[in-house]
C-alpha cells in the first residue's frame, strides 16, 4: 500500500485541466520553415521525406502527408526546417494543412454554427479503422482516459453506428474495409460528419501507390475535420473538435 502511495505521489496530477493549453514536452508536431534561402540546387529534404510531404519553390510541407518523422531537418544544410510541439494543427480544409515560410501555421479551424447548435452539448462518435496500423486507434482510445477525458465536453465514443453523430476514420482505407466502412456510414442517422484522423486517412500516405486501397468513400463524403499526425495526438484531436464546435476553454 505504501509503495502504491509513493508511486501515485511521484506521478503527480495526470489530469490536463485545459487540453488546448497543454505543453507536450518532446512532442514533434508543427514544422517551421525558416524564411531563408535554400542552398543552390539542394533537394535533400525532398529525398529524405518518406511520404513525399515536402515540395520546393517555395519549400512547403503538407501535414496531410507528413508523418512528423523529422528526417528532413538534419539533412537541410541551410537549417531551414525544424519542428515545434505545437499540436494545434487540425483543419477544416484540406489545403489548410500545407505550411510554408509565408504561411507558417495551419489555418484556424472554422467554427460551424450549425454543428455547434446540433452537437455542442452532446456528440457521439463511432471509430472505424479502415486498414490502420492501430497507432491512431490507440490514441483515439486514449481520449477517454484520465489525462484527456474528452467525455467532460459531452463527447463520447460509441459502439454502434446507430448511436453515432460522427465517423472517426483512421487507416488508409483498404479495399477489404470499403464495404464495412460504407455500412457503418449508412447505419448512422442524419445529420452526420466525417473526421479523418492521421496521415493515412487524410491522404493515404505512404500507401497510396499500393493496390490495396479503395478511397472513393472520401470522394463521396468529404471530411468536416482533418486531424494530422502519425499517429495523431489526442491533444490535436481534442483541440480540433472543440474549435469546430465552438466550445470555449
From TrEMBL:
Recorded coiled-coil stretches: none
Record keywords: 4Fe-4S, Iron, Iron-sulfur, Metal-binding, Pyruvate
UniProt-listed PROSITE patterns: 4FE4S_FER_2
Residue ranges annotated for the 4Fe-4S ferredoxin-type domain, each copy included: 29-59, 60-86
Any one GO molecular-function label of the UniProt entry: metal ion binding
Cofactors named for this entry: [4Fe-4S] cluster
UniProt record similarity statement: Belongs to the complex I 20 kDa subunit family.
Name of protein: Ni,Fe-hydrogenase III small subunit/Pyruvate/2-oxoacid:ferredoxin oxidoreductase delta subunit
Amino acid at each position: 500500500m505504501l509503495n502504491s502511495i509513493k508511486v501515485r505521489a511521484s506521478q503527480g496530477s495526470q489530469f490536463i485541466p485545459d487540453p488546448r493549453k497543454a505543453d507536450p514536452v518532446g512532442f514533434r508536431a508543427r514544422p517551421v520553415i525558416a524564411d531563408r534561402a535554400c542552398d543552390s540546387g539542394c533537394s535533400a529534404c525532398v529525398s529524405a521525406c518518406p511520404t513525399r510531404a515536402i515540395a520546393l519553390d517555395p519549400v512547403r510541407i503538407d501535414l496531410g502527408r507528413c508523418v512528423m518523422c523529422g528526417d528532413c531537418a538534419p539533412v537541410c544544410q541551410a537549417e531551414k526546417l525544424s519542428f515545434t510541439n505545437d499540436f494545434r494543427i487540425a483543419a477544416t480544409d484540406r489545403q489548410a494543412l500545407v505550411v510554408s515560410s509565408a504561411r507558417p501555421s495551419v489555418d484556424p479551424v472554422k467554427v460551424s454554427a450549425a454543428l455547434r447548435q446540433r452537437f455542442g452539448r452532446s456528440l457521439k462518435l463511432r471509430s472505424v479503422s479502415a486498414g490502420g496500423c492501430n497507432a491512431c486507434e490507440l490514441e483515439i482510445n486514449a481520449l477517454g482516459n484520465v489525462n484527456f477525458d474528452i467525455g467532460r465536453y459531452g463527447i463520447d465514443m460509441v459502439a454502434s453506428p446507430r448511436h453515432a453523430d460522427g465517423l472517426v476514420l483512421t487507416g488508409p482505407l483498404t479495399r477489404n474495409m470499403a464495404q464495412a466502412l460504407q455500412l457503418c456510414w449508412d447505419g448512422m442517422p442524419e445529420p452526420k460528419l466525417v473526421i479523418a484522423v492521421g496521415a493515412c486517412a487524410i491522404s493515404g500516405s505512404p500507401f497510396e501507390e499500393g493496390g490495396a486501397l479503395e478511397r472513393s468513400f472520401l470522394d463521396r463524403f468529404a471530411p468536416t475535420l482533418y486531424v494530422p499526425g502519425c499517429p495523431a495526438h489526442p491533444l490535436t484531436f481534442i483541440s480540433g473538435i472543440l474549435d469546430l464546435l465552438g466550445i470555449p476553454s
